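My main concern about presentation is that the manuscript never shows what a single data entry looks like. The format is easy to grasp once an entry is in front of the reader. For illustration, here is how one protein appears when written out as sequence plus structure tokens:
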Amino acid sequence: MTSSSAGAGAPGDESVPPPDAHPSGDPGTEPVDAAAQRAAEEHNLAGSVTALSRLSSSALDLEELLTEVATYAVRAVPGADGAGLTLIERDRADVIVKTAPFVREVDDIQYGIGEGPCISAAATGRPMRSGSIGADQRWPQFGARVGRLGVHSVLSLPLRATDGVVGAMNIYAHMKDAFDERAEYLGQLFAAPAAIAVQNAQILAQTKRLVTNLQAALSNRAVIDQAIGIVMSRSGVTAEEAFDRLRGISQRDHVKLTEVATGVVQSAVQRARDRHQHP
């Protein structure tokens, strides 16, 4: 069975109510086993959402945190065997994590050919569900190759934040028709807080990179200024002329300007040490 889930809305959207718990209209007719299963599924979802709230971006790096989110998704969605998560990055390579080796194989195929449910979910902002990937004509190349791996079901959920889609989760199962409407509904309930956790982790990682880059820029500027001063004292040239000399060496030797400046400073320090050791 294959379902596009194209009409599914976000969790909490009144246009997408949860699947009917009692198709007959009589709550008393639901089998005890089915009720127990539903209770267990809701317990797993609640546990996964609670675990999300306890994730610490300060204790985990970005990939570790995303892997934890994907792991909780497997627990939250009934029938799941593994999951992957893709974080969309601007001006950088996307961050892709997996919870199991077979997920890596599947996602390597997906991103290698540029076709698959996660790509579609991230592009459209809508869930993608299939119970027979190998026969799904939405992704013919992807489906044929993944079906041969024995992976037949997928549920891809976009991670929607306030300013758009920040990524998507791929939840896989080996058996066919593993994910029904209820599984998709539970997955969307999990995806809402997951998107917040992912976006917060992304913002923190971006902030850390910015701080590191600023510190490096300040450090590099200090080294260049030191090198300019050394060249000025040796050659009696102006600061602009000293900088032009350093830049000329950088272009001639195909070396970064900061590396040229560092070499000048280190050479001056070494000569000063030698003079003190051998007056």
The first helix runs from residue 32 to 54.
